Structures are given as structure tokens and as C-alpha cells.
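Re: weekly structure request thread

Next one in the queue (187 aa):
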Amino acid sequence: MAVVLNDPAVWRVWEQGDVYRFQQESSPYPVDGSWPTNRGRFDNGVRHTLYLATSAVTAVAEYFRRHPELLEFQGRTRLRTYQMRLEPITEGLDLRTAEQIHVCGFDGSRLRSSERDESQRYKECRELAVVVEAQGGSGIAHQSAAYMDGQTFALFGQQSDGRWKLSAPVEVPTPAVDPAQVRVIES
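Done, posted below.
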């Protein structure tokens, strides 16, 4: 994969800021923990990845992207929303704007792909994650695939790796999401 990572517009230490994550009420996992799965855009089944959003609405929209049938029952879904403070320590890839995506040379449409087949939907993003992690990157900041104007972070590794830190999670009210703003996965 031929992408540009040495341009300071895209390879940099992100600014500190508040981030949000949803969690189902019944989840036994810590809300601020990263896990190796095969379900997310940048996962590979081995890499510890933690997905966070820059707003509570975007975080909750990530849930409804996979469960659009529950949008009409938002108030009864038993989702909890948490706020944390992200302190990036090492450089990461920043693809939150069209200009950054252009500088990097990545196909920006793949950041929001929604094909039914995950192996196709996430193929290029998972390849990009391998390149970023090989460079020691803290993760990838990108446009949300779930919410029209949202932004999200995929953090790689664990806090103990020293690439990023999070403050203790604080539960905040779970916001309502405008169903018209949620991009759902094709069925």
C-alpha cells in the first residue's frame, strides 16, 4: 500500500481532547480497554484496538450503524455513554479532513465503506492499519463511517504501551441520534 506517512499534515501527535465511547449495559469489559477483534474497520484479530469518537452522538451512532432496527427504540437500548480525556503521546495518522486524505494518498471512500461483506468493507483500512502500526503509530484519526459529520479514533495497543493515555471514564447521558444522519451497513 503506497501511502504518505511522513507529511506533518497527516503524521503527527493529535491534540488532547475529550472522547466518547458507548457500551452496552451488560458488557463485562472495561470501557477504556482495547481488545483484539475482527469486527472493526482497523482490526485484524491480533492488534489491540480501541474505538473512540469525538462526540457522544457519534459514539452512539457507531452502535446504530450495526443495529439500525433499534433506532426507533433509542431510549430503551440500554446503552451507556462514557467520556474520557485522550492524551496522545506518539504520532498517529490523521485522516479527519479531505485535504489530509488527499495528502496521504488513501482512498477516502474506504473510510466510510458499508458493503455487507466485512472482508471487502474493511480490506483497505485493515491494510492501512498494518502500515501505521509498523511505523509505531498510536492509531488512526478519521471521519466516522457511522455519523455524517462525526470523527473517530482507532487507537492501537494498550495504555501501558505508552502511545496514548486516557483519563478514567465518566458516564454521561446517552444522547438521541438523528436516524437520518446514521450511515448503516448494507444488508
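The CA atoms of residues 68 and 94 lie 28 Å apart. The longest strand covers residues 79-88.
Next request, please.
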